[in-house]
Amino acid sequence: MRRLAELQIIAKNSRATHPTLRFKRRHTQRYEQNIYERVQQSNMQQIGREEQLSYKEIKGIFEQVIKLKKKQQVGSQLSESLLMK
């Protein structure tokens, strides 16, 4: 039982520092990007059935990817404007 608790702590800590897993997220960025792209070609219900995820999970992934894309776009624009000066 103690070993299980230790493994859970290790997994939790490694997930927080792993480059492709974001804190408190269950999926890799690559997987989330894949879901996002597939939803654009289909719909959330269909992808949810295919991946055995709830509508709420698919929607959360979709919104998270949109949020990251906006953040990256703003950062890119900021970098460009600083280079122009």
How would you characterize the overall build of this protein?
- The protein has four helices and no strands.
- By secondary structure, the protein is mainly α.
- It has one domain (2-84).
- The chain is flat.
Topology:
Layout: H1 2-17, H2 29-41, H3 44-51, H4 55-84
Explain briefly what this protein structure is.
By secondary structure, this protein is mostly helical.
**What is the mean predicted local confidence, pLDDT?**
79
Structural class by sheet pairing and helices: mainly alpha
Helix content: over 70%
**Main sheet characteristics:** none
* Strand fraction: under 5%
Give the termini separation: 60 Å
Number of helices: 4
Rg computed from alpha carbons, rounded to a whole number of angstroms: 17 Å
Low-confidence stretches: none
Q: What is the strand tally?
A: 0
What tags apply to this protein structure?
0% strand, 79% helix, flat, 85 residues, mainly alpha
